[in-house]
Amino acid sequence: MNKIKALFSKKDMETVSVKEVDEIRQEEVIKEMVPRFKEQFELNDYKLLCKVGEGAFSKVYKAVPLNTTIAKNHKHVAVKIINKDNLHEKEQKEDSNVGKTTTRQQVLKEVSIHKLISSNCENIVQFIEFKETRSNYYIVQELLDGGEIFNEIVKYTYFSEDLCRHVIRQLGLAIRHLHSMGVVHRDIKPENLLFNPIAYQPNETPKLRKSDDPNTKVDEGVFIPHVGGGSIGIVKLADFGLSKQIFQTNTMTPCGTVGYTAPEVVKDENYSMKVDMWGVGCVLYTMLCGFPPFFDDKIDVLTEKISKGQYTFLKPWWDEISDGAKRCVRKLLEVDPHRRYDIEQFLQDPWLNSFDCEKVAQQVQRKKSRAHARMPPHVDTSLLYSPAAVAMRDAFDISNAVQRIEQEKKRNLLTSLNEDSELLGFTATTGLDDRMFQLRLNSSTIVKRRKHKQELLANK
Q1: Which of 391-417 are b and which e, b meaning 16 or more Cβ less than 10 Å from the residue's Cβ?
Q2: What residues bind ATP, as annotated (predicted)?
Q3: Which residues are catalytic?
Q4: Is the pLDDT of residue 378 over 70?
C-alpha cells in the first residue's frame, strides 16, 4: 500500500494506470507469501516472528504455534533451529574415528535428555516437540520473555545478595531435579539461565556499595522474598546440548556397557554430578560482584588457574559482601570434588536460606497496592557485546570446559568406556560443540581492572 501511495504522489491520478496498481499489489502479495526467514520454508506448524538468540551451530526464534493443541497452552514458543549443513561441516573437520558419534546423534541426545527431564520441575525450560526436515532440526520449547540472566548482570553490574539467593536457589532446584534423573548438565552459566519478568519497583533510596559509580550503577529495584526483584521472577535452566545421562533412574546403574564399568565408577557416580556444582559456584561469584572468579588473557594460564582453583575475593568489590556468601562460594569452588558441596548440601546452606530484607519485605507487601509498577531501567544493549561482556561469556565457557575435561580424565582412569559407547544405551551424544573456545581478553576492561588491583596489592 505504501508503494501505491507513493505512485499517486508522483503522478496525477488521471495518469496512473490500472496495470501499474495491479503490478504493485501482486508484488506485495508475493512478498507476504514468501517467508521472512529461510528456516521457515520447511516449518509448517509455527510462524517465526523474530530471532532472539544465536549460537555456533543454531539460531533461536520466537514463534507462534499454528497447531491449535499447542496454541492452547503456549501463545508463543522458542524454536531452536540447527542447520544440518553447518553440523556436517563441523563433522568433516573432526577425526573420522570408527564408532565416532555423529552430529545427528548429538542432536538426538540433546532432545532425549531435554524431553526426559522437562516435566515436573518449574525451573527447567519445558520441552514441547522436536521436528526434523531435510535441512534442519527444530527443537520447540517454552519461551521465557525475560531473556538471559547474563544480560541482567551486565545491566545491573552485580546483584544484591537477596537477588543472588533468589536466582541461585532456583538454579539449585533445577539441578536437584536433573541429578535425581541421573543427568548432569555440564554447562552451567548465566547465558543458560532464562527468566520470566515481574513488575519492576524502584527503590526509594537505592543502596550503593563503596565500589559503585553512582553515575552508572543501575538500581535493581525492590526485592520481595520468594517473588523476585530487578524484574527477575521465575528462573529456568536451559540448553542441554552438553548434558549427559550418568545413570538410569529405573535401575540406578551407569549408562553404557555395564559389564565394562569399573566398580569405582558404579559406587561414585555422585562424583560426576559435582561438575554442575562448580558451575553454580562460578555463577554465584559472578552475580555477587559482577565478574567471574577466573580470568586471564592467556588461555593456558587461565586453564591452570581453573584447574588449581586460584581465585580471590578482590577488594574493594568483595568488601561489603557477607562472610556467609563467601563461605558458600568457597564450598562450591572447592577443587577436590569430594569436598565440594553436593546439591543437597548447597540447598541447605545457611546463607541461602535467609533473606536480608525479610522484615522490610513485609512492609513492602503491605504497600504494594499503592506502589506504581514501572518498566525496568533502560540500558544500552551495546553493553551486551562490550569487551567485558564477551570476556565474561568466554571465561564461563573455558571454566566449564576445563571441569568437563578434568572429570572425563578421572573417569577414564577407572573405565575403558568412551562417550560413544554410551549410545548403546541412549540414542544421542554429549553436545553440539565440546571443544575449547578461543579467548579474546586483551581488551577486556575487567581484566585490566583486576590486573591493576593485583599490582596495587603487590606493591603495598
Answers
A1: bbbbbbbbbbbbbbebbbeebeeebeb
A2: 80
A3: 187
A4: no
